[in-house]
Predict the structure.
Amino acid sequence: MQLRYNYRVYPTPSQQQALAQSFGCARVVFNDGLRLRQQAREAGDKYVSDGDLSKQVITRAKDTPGRAWLSEVSSVVLQQALADLNVAYRNFFASVTGKRKGRKVAPPRFRSRKDNRQAIRFTANARFEVLGNGRLRLPKIGDVEVRWSRDLPAEPSSVTVIRDAAGRYFASFVVQTTDQPLPETDSEAGIDLGLTHFAVLSDGTKIAAPKFLRRAARKLRRLQQDLSRKQRGSQNRKKAVVKVARAHARVADTRRDWQHKLSTAIIRDNQAVYVEDLCVVGLGRTRLAKSVHDAGWASFTGMLEYKAARHGRTFGRVDRFFPSTRMCSGCGRINEKMDLSIRSWVCPCGSIHDRDHNAAKNVLAAGQADNSNDRGAQVRPARVLAPRSEAVTHSDAAHGTRSVEGISVL
């Protein structure tokens, strides 16, 4: 499995200037390649291949007066910029043809020097090196100081140097790691994600939502107000922009650290973990959008998935249309829809349910049913009576239409 290990780096002022030059050259090569392909398409010419594109925007461009400064940076950085462009085009074509699942991917766009985030990548061909004194040697950049928060498990295949909106520099190493199976345990967990509680486990454990963005809202509001009062293009405005970016970065870092600790604990204590396949994009368009984005469900489930694969655990997603909240975990009856304000309810069978705990138990049961089917087919639960509001209406019934009690089969 390939993993990324990120470390904070502290380049000197001269190294920061060299990195800024590399950022700019990579951006220019990317934009030149994109412009060349767009012009070929508008002229009706054939698609410019990757090799021809490299010759025109890098090799030949270095011999022209307008692009001679491309020779002052590492050629690997320029090649990797074109590699990013090629990947963007391949993702776009795969999305258009239907080979790529999920949301539609837009065609590549031009990069701007005003982008808050800048990055360049060095592969093994660039011969970057981690020195014995702990510094990172980058070609035509120099020996950069690194804060090693942990050791690299293996030799890195590439390193990406990133400058974020807050002005911080990071080195992101790609490392090939081996699986590290954890001791087996009999415990399995279903997780119901929410806003009242960030997560409720099938064993009844409730994890409060930390709401990092809400807690920092007052400070962010003050910084945004200070930014709005600064004159556009002034140095004070640039300083205010960095202050806002640092405040947001602190919120994001705190949330990521908390999610890493929580996901590691859940994977360590459970042999199998099942969650709902939530439509975060759709929920992000509702009136609860701010709270949904503050929760960070997608990043948390992503952590659970890759940590389960690395440590020999089972991870599964339950269909987003599975009625985990309305289904009674005792008898399997599916009740009518409930408002979000209803936190507990009573089933006609006599069971009293906490809304979130009941949903977590249903997620666990559905995940176990899907996982036990070795052929990958959908496993149907037992038939239960449908609520009267979901009864089937037959339009061709004699003497007009009539309502018939139906059977709800999932």
The first strand starts at residue 2 and ends at 10. The chain has ten helices and 18 strands. Confidence is low (pLDDT under 50) at residues 374-410. Residues 327 and 333 are 6 Å apart (CA to CA).
